[in-house]
TrEMBL record:
Family annotation (SUPFAM superfamilies): Ribonuclease H-like (SSF53098)
Gene Ontology MF terms in the entry: nucleic acid binding; RNA-DNA hybrid ribonuclease activity
InterPro entries listed in its UniProt record: RNaseH-like_sf (IPR012337), RNaseH_domain (IPR002156), RNaseH_sf (IPR036397)
Residue ranges of every copy of the RNase H type-1 domain listed in the record: 1-130
Protein's UniProt name: Bifunctional RNase H/acid phosphatase
CDD domains associated with the record: RNase_HI_like
One Pfam family matching this protein: RVT_3
Transmembrane segments: none
Length: 130
C-alpha cells in the first residue's frame, strides 16, 4: 500500500489540518481522511498527518507500507538523517517510530508537492471548512 500524507497550518502557528490518502498497489484510492488539528505549526501538522496515516493503515490491516510526504524535514528526521532539535517534535517522532514498528515493512520517501496533491487538497478543504 502507498500512503500519502500532508499537514499544514495557516499562520504557522495557526489553524492546522492533516490529509491522508491510502492507495493500493495499482494506485486506486482505498481510503482518504481529513482531520482538523487546532492550532499548530506546519511541522507539527506534517508529523500529525503521518501519525494519522499510519494509524489509518494499521486500522484496515495493512502490513507493508510506503509513506510519501512532501515534508523533507519530517522524512529525514524519521529516517534519522536529520537531528531533531525541538523537544515537541522529538515526541512526535517517537510516536511515529512506535506506529511504524507495528508494520512488517514500512518506508518513508520525500515527494514533491505536485505528487502529493490529493493529500494537500484534503488539508485545504478541512481548513476552509473550519
Amino acid at each position: 500500500m502507498i500512503l500519502n500524507t500532508d499537514g499544514g497550518a495557516r499562520g504557522n502557528p495557526g489553524p492546522g489540518a492533516a490529509g491522508v490518502v491510502l492507495r493500493n498497489d495499482t494506485g486506486d484510492v482505498v481510503k482518504q481522511v481529513g482531520l482538523y488539528l487546532g492550532v499548530c505549526t506546519n511541522n507539527e501538522a506534517e508529523y500529525k498527518a503521518l501519525a494519522l496515516g499510519l494509524q489509518t493503515a494499521l486500522g484496515i490491516g495493512v502490513k507493508t507500507l510506503v509513506c510519501r510526504l512532501d515534508s523533507e524535514l519530517v522524512v529525514n528526521q524519521v529516517i534519522g538523517r536529520y537531528k531533531i532539535k525541538q523537544a515537541h517534535l522529538k515526541l512526535l517522532n517517537d510516536a511515529i517510530k512506535k506506529l511504524a514498528a507495528q508494520f512488517e515493512a514500512v518506508s518513508f520517501e520525500y515527494v514533491p508537492r505536485a505528487q502529493n496533491n490529493l493529500a494537500d487538497k484534503i488539508v485545504n478543504e478541512v481548513l476552509d471548512a473550519a
